[in-house]
Each structure stands twice: as structure tokens, then as C-alpha cells.
Amino acid sequence: MSDVARYLPELWLRIGEHILLAGISTLIAIAIAIPLGILAIRKSYIRGLILASVSILQTIPSLAMLAFLLVLIGKIGVVPAVVALTLYALLPIVRNTVTGLDGVPSEVRQASLGIGMTPWQQLFLVELPLAKDVIIAGIRTAAVIGVGIATLSAFIGAGGLGQFINRGLALLSTELILLGAIPAAALALTVDGSIQAMSWGLQRRPQIKASLRPLLPILRIVAIAAPALLLAIGATAYMTGTSSGSASNGASSTTIRISSKNFTEQHILAEIMAQIIEARTDISVDRRTGLGGTMIVHQALVQGEIDIYAEYSGTALTAILNLPVVSNPDEAFEIVARAYDDQFDLIWMPPFGFTNTFAVCVRRADAEANGWQAVSDVSPQYEFRAGFGPEFADRPDGLPGLLATYPNINIRSILDIDPSLMYGAIARSEVDVIAAFSTDGRIDAFDLVTLDDDRGFFPPYYPSPVVRRELLEEHPEIGAALSEVGGLISNEIMRDMNYRVDEEGFSPAEIARTFLIENGLVTQE
To answer: Does residue 293 have a pLDDT over 90?
Structure first.
């Protein structure tokens, strides 16, 4: 629970972000969907097209929509998230607007025309007031859907309560998952209740107990304003909240953004970088950890939406630069560092000191029973059920290259699985082989065996802080601080730190601080 307690100050900020994401997108959807519904009623020949279009949007999987908009818009964060949430909110509002207006009795329409109303007067004074309850019901549905889908927005760096869920999945922390999921569920109920209260307040004669009738005018005002009050609370939380672990140095006028991919080692490295910068400078650090996969975090850095993250030289060489594997790790690092400087204005700081790479892992019992020590030892007759992370299946330094180098590997089926869940899956015999990370402490914890890459397929992976050149020129003290941790982390130290987070329940921040204290880089308060 100490890990959860550390995140409690951040909860206020994430709630605010979540409210604003869902609220702003719902307001935009209302502004678009109600006119579309009116148009569908007034122009019956395009009614089917309008309803079909918004229905198709609803069938697109949420993550696919976010990924598509991420590429289309070309940036991470709030903008693609709000666009996606708005698109998902259109269907219930459009459909309920059409249903509500369709339900207005024809005799009422005729009567309004009979007393001389124009079509616009008829719409605003008769039809919309009568359809109000049905339309608001659609808005309630859209808003609740928005709260739910907004949890996925953390995948593209938009914040919200999904941040906790992402971290919890990466760190196998049930407490952190619940820290995001329970407030999100409560927020959905609160949003639904606030819109229902507004609907009650807008009734001509709202039902109320006789004892409360004298308070009816005040209660109606409060009820009608309930959604606006909720948005105001969200805005206040967003402006006053702080990220987990962010420095609160009142003398600092500079805040930098440190990010990471979504697995344990990256969370730890991000914390080490953040804490050494906080200790050596007066700069505040906004932690945006667990942002996503390699390309998402890399693009965020190139576009200046984050300032620093830890990357691996082999990943940069093959997945980002699309260059062939270089077996010499120092030469590979020099190639990557030079290319990043030339192409992206990004600087690779001195490596942390350890080497991480993919590792083909099997259960120890299977390795011993079949006499496997190296990948080449595997018989083509043995059919594997594989569990691979999303990136490994398509990267050139992943499965395609592995199968080309080792044609003896016979994979019967592949399960795409989050890296944090692979180890439990192979231990439970749900899969037979995984592409693990060589510095992961769970390899020993789950009694797995790493098969030797005897043909040298996997490139060397030196992890290093990668920093925007502009930031280092403005604040050279950041480069000096990051250089202090260069070369200090061995494979054994990194494996131990990963194990203590994954299996012993320590937070990445606690492990990072312990490491810095043990190496004399920060003092124990």
C-alpha cells in the first residue's frame, strides 16, 4: 500500500484530466451531433447516410482509433484523445436526437404551423423541448462511454485515470490498477448523475417531496448547473494537481518532461533520471511514464512533447533507423548516437552500463528434457506456442529476423501478450516460449532458461538517456547530472532492481532512490 500512497497526491490531477477529457469531448459531440440529428430529420434523403456514418465510427476498436489518430494528427496527448472521444460520442446523441424529434406528434407540428410559427420557431419552441428528455438520455450515454474510453487515452499520453491502470499493468500492481479503475467507475456514475440532475431541473414541474418544495428554486439551479460544476471541479483539479513524484521546488521556473515505455525497467530508469536531475538542479520533473511502445515515445521526443527517455541502442539501430545489425556494441552505439544527432537533434548521453536484449526463454523442465542450451538446439519437430509482446512480432530485430536466422524454430501459434504478463503465462504452461528481456529478474523467479543466441542474431542493446539537444543547450546542468549515472548499472544490478519491483512489491521510485543513495549520488533524508 505504500506504493499506492505515493500516488495519492497525483490522483487529484488525474481525476481532473479525466473529467476534462470526457467533458470537453462530450460538449464538442453535442455541438456536432444535435445539428446532425436535426439535419437527418429535415432532409430525409441523407438520414440513412448520417446514421450509418456515426454507426461505423462506433464499430472501430478504441485502441485502433487512438493509434490511427495518433498517426493522422502527428502528435501525442490531448488532441487525438479528444478527437477520438468526440467521434465515439456522436452515435448515441445523433440517434437519440432523431428518435426524439421523430416522436413529436404530427398534430402538434401542424398546430404550431397553424398559429403562424416559422420552421425554426417550430424547432426551437416546440420540437426540441418535447424531444429534450430523449436527447438528454443520449447525452448521458455518450458521456458515460466517454469516461470509460478516456482510460485508454493514457496509451497516447493524454493523462487521466488510465495512467494508473497502465502503470499497474506494467508493474503487475493490483493496487495501482484499482487506483485507476475504481475512481473511473465512480466518475462515470457521477457524470451520469449530474446530467440526470440537469434533466430533472429542466422539467417544467419537477417532482419533489412536499417538505422540500420551498427549496425548489435553489435546487433547480443547482441541478441544472451540476454538469458545469463538475467541469469546474475538473479544471480546478487539473490546474492545482501535481504529477507523482514531481518536484515542488518553489524557486524553479523550469519543468522538464521525462517519459518511458510501458515496462518495469523503463519505469525504474525514468525515476533514476528524474531523481538525479531533481537532486542536482533546481528543475522540476513531470513524469510521463508508461507512454507506450518505442515509436510512440520516440515521436513524442522528436516533436518536443517530452524531453528525455531511456532508449536502447539496438532498438534505435534496427527499429527506428532501420539499419542492419552491428555486432560490436560500441560501434553500434556510435552509429546510433551520430544518426540521432544528425537526423533528430537528439543527444545520446553515456550509457547506464548494462546491456539488455531480447532473450528466447523456455521452462527449465522443457530445456532439460529436450537438451536445449542454445536456440540452434531446438528440433524443428517441436511445435511452440509462443507468447510475444506487441513490438517483438513485427520488428526486424524481433520475430521475423529470429525465424530467418533460426529456421529450426517451429511456432504453431502466437499469443500477443503484454510483456508484464508473459512470465506468468509461460509458468502456467499457457505458452511454451517467450521473448523476454535479458535483465528481467523474473527469468530466475519463474525458473526459466535463456537459450543461447549462438548465431548472434539479437543486436546489442545499450540503454542510455536520450535528450533533446535544445534542452541540453539551455540547461547543461541536466547533461552533467545524467552523466553521473553513466556506467553505474551492471546487468546484475538492473536484474535485481527489476526483481524487487516485479516480485517484492517495491515502487520504481523507491528502488531508484535506494540505488542513488547506495552510489552516493543523493543523501538519505
So the answer is: no
